């Protein structure tokens, strides 16, 4: 089956567009009713071309939503003290409502320590231990939730996927995708199973076979066999893997972690790669930056 066009294929670009249009409206309201212009500071350390591309997308999305963005660039030799000082300055700047550090940062820097310097009220990535702690607790709410998993929840909500009582399986347990994904699904009353690199393959297979909602974030092309997908389930493929493809001008193409063609025959709904979860991440970053509750707590 080809990606796109089919009725069971989730159009992440369209949903991302809708989210950004809503953000734009909220930003206009914040400006006209409260005189607040949300501001996002993006800190980029070093000279990685891929990071520059990601940051460019974020800055463009800000422009589209009416959010002021400030790009702070530091050289690859920047010291830990210098990077932390810049973050503290941004913490104290009342025109900045969100701060994000573009990852990865150069190896000589301590990522955990740097991220923990961001005040949790300005943590638009939702990675701060306080925000993750709030996310993990019942009846508590993080000020911002990690963008990729909350993008998945937004897809499920807009596609009217029932999470209550559903069996959800999350493949992967990273701090930025798998763990917060499992917590969000749990909060949405799903019964959640998390499988990871240490899970025996037979258990990975049986978990996938049992999933009403499957979210895969392993970063392994084709890890999930399409024939394992439960008939009528919802398949969300977060994986983004470049594989060689001589027919492409740049010599490669992007694929997910799920063997798409076979999976798409069985799933009720499925996200393609690219064009599924990917576009949602930036949209949710915009949502987090505008996030009324957080911005209000800062003004
Ligand atoms: P990560 O490398 O930090 O974590 C991968 C996780 O997958 C680990 O927890 C590991 O235990 C698990 N895993 C690895 N091999 C496995 C296997 N054989 N069986 C079961 N589990 C296995 O990666 P990440 O940052 O969580 O990202 C995962 C994927 O999602 C990557 O392809 C990444 O590019 C993609 N991603 C996409 C977006 C987006 O916006 N669409 C955002 C973030 C990450």
From TrEMBL:
Per the record, its GO cellular-component terms are:
cytosol
- From the UniProt record, give the pathway where this protein acts: One-carbon metabolism; tetrahydrofolate interconversion
Please report the stretch or stretches of sequence annotated as the Tetrahydrofolate dehydrogenase/cyclohydrolase catalytic domain: 10-125
Matching entries from Gene3D superfamilies are given as: Leucine Dehydrogenase, chain A, domain 1, NAD(P)-binding Rossmann-like Domain
One Pfam family per UniProt: THF_DHG_CYH
* Keyword Repressor carried by entry: no
Coiled-coil annotated spans = none
Q: Which UniProt keywords apply?
A: Hydrolase, Multifunctional enzyme, NADP, One-carbon metabolism, Oxidoreductase
HAMAP family in the record, alphabetically?
THF_DHG_CYH
Assembly and interaction partners: Homodimer.
Its name, as the record gives it, is Uncharacterized protein
């Amino acid at each position: 089956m080809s990606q796109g066009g089919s009725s069971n294929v989730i159009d992440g670009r369209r949903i991302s567009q809708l989210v950004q249009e809503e953000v734009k409206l909220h930003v206009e309201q914040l400006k006209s009713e409260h005189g607040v212009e949300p501001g996002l500071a993006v800190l980029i350390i070093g000279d990685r071309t891929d990071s520059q591309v990601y940051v460019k997308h974020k800055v463009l999305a800000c422009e589209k939503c009416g959010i002021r963005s400030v790009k702070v660039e530091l050289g690859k030799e920047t010291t830990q003290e210098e990077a932390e000082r810049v973050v503290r300055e941004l913490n104290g700047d009342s025109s900045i409502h969100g701060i994000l550090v573009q990852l990865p940062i150069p190896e000589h820097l301590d990522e955990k320590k740097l991220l923990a310097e961001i005040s949790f009220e300005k943590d638009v990535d939702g990675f701060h231990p306080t925000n993750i702690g709030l996310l993990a607790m019942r009846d508590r709410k993080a000020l911002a939730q990690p963008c990729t998993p909350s993008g998945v929840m937004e897809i499920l909500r807009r596609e009217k996927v029932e999470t209550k009582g559903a069996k959800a399986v999350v493949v992967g347990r990273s701090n930025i995708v798998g763990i917060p994904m499992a917590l969000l699904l749990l909060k949405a009353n799903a019964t959640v199973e998390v499988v990871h690199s240490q899970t025996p393959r037979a258990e990975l297979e049986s978990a996938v076979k049992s999933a009403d909602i499957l979210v895969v974030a392993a970063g392994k092309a084709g890890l999930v066999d399409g024939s394992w997908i439960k008939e009528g389930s919802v398949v969300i493929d977060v994986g983004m893997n470049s594989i060689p493809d001589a027919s492409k001008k740049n010599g490669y193409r992007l694929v997910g972690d799920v063997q798409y063609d076979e999976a798409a025959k069985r799933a009720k709904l499925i996200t393609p790669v690219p064009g599924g979860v990917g576009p949602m991440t930036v949209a949710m970053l915009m949502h987090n930056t505008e996030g009324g509750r957080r911005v209000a707590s800062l003004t």
